[in-house]
Amino acid sequence: MTVFSELRMRPATAGRAGWDASTTARLVMAGTVIFTLLVGANLATPLYPLLQENLGLSTFGITIAFASYVLALVSTLMLAGHWSDYIGRRATLILAVVVGLAGGWIFAHAEGLAGLSAGRALQGVAVALATGASAAALRELLPSRPEWASRFTLLASAGGVAAGPVIGGVLSMLPGPTTAPYYVHSAVLACLLVPLYLLQARPAIMPADAAKPFKALAPRRPSVSTEARGAFWLAAAVGFLSFSVFGFCLSLAPGYFAQIVHAESRPVIGALAGITLGASALSQLLSVRGRYAVPAGLAVLGISVLLLAASAAWNSPLVLVVASICAGLGQGVAFRTVFNDVAGKVEPSHHARIISTVYVITYLGSAVPVLGLGWATAVFGLQASVAGFVVLCSAAALVLAAVTMRSAMRLRARR
Q1: Quick one: 347 exposed, middle or buried, by C-beta within 10 A (0-12, 13-18, 19+)?
Q2: Cβ proximity of 139 and 343 under 8 Å
């Protein structure tokens, strides 16, 4: 099938010899696309202080630019999270890459808050399109190993978010610090289009009505089966909390961390912002199991977040780094466990839509609290606002840890 016939949800009129890729190659392609798009979406993290200075933006303006990405991502997940079920995984990923190219170009050439927000919004649309498609593709490619499908999904996602600030900081050392990272990233995205176009696409798992094919793309009301409902809401709650912490790390934290380590180097700032996400990504390679994995991970996250604020009070870079690593490890273990649980209980035909819905709530965690934090910073100052924010996040994590521990103990008592 050609890409255009997939987008029209109609069979191709003529056969096309394509790249009959192996399962391994398809796994790599699905993971690479979402990884690369998330790298691009987070290249700006170490650039925000420079953009703020060059464009004369306030702290609240930076949070608006950051939140525009998340809000566009969430809106697209709600409206188009099911599209890949009908137009196919490959066509959706190609569409995501094209939109990502446009978003990065607009952001790189922005001359004010409106341009930054527009570029970030398009990046959010691209990531949203790829999120459900890549997660569903990985699940279909590993039907007998659903846990590893979830691990690869979270590894690619968290790894891309973690690598973005580091790569952005390093590339910002090139001439044109706010544009060079996006030129390089655009070249990588353009290269990805070649194997995606040549790839021999698999049929969509839910063919649309031939008479009214585009009706299938209309927004759907989220619905979860009774068996998966409890797992769904737990995954959504853990995701919302952990992405609140991630949103802080990727928006206001670079300036906050720079004060603690007394650094102005963008690569250093980018690396500090990406530590928590990097630890979360690496935790997907750990074999931590058992009924107490979720409460233990949440407890580690809650305590570590408190230590992030303490590192400023103690002026300790060591505490900052250790707390960031522990927060990422705790989040990664907890979220992987609950994510794998809900993914395993959802029927394959609804996988992309339900996982997209989990991410709707999850990504709201990196927008709504951060907007509130940006407002509080303008009113109360950075140090006081961050202290209040981390206390709230820590309390929420410890409450969730207690709730999941109680559930685990009840399950053990029944057995």
Answers
A1: exposed
A2: yes
Please report, in tens digits, the pLDDT of each residue of the chain (415 residues total): 565 455 544 555 445 566 777 888 888 888 899 999 999 998 987 887 788 888 888 777 877 887 788 889 888 888 877 677 777 788 889 999 999 999 999 999 988 889 999 999 999 999 988 987 888 788 778 877 777 777 788 788 878 888 888 898 889 888 988 899 999 999 999 999 999 888 877 665 555 555 555 565 666 666 666 666 778 888 889 989 988 888 787 766 666 677 777 767 778 777 877 888 888 888 877 777 777 889 999 999 999 998 887 887 788 888 888 998 999 999 988 988 888 787 777 666 666 667 777 878 887 887 778 778 878 877 888 778 888 888 999 999 999 999 999 887 876 666 6
C-alpha radius of gyration, the chain, whole number: 21
Closest CA to 139 of 354, 352, 333: 352
pTM of the predicted structure, to 2 decimals = 0.77
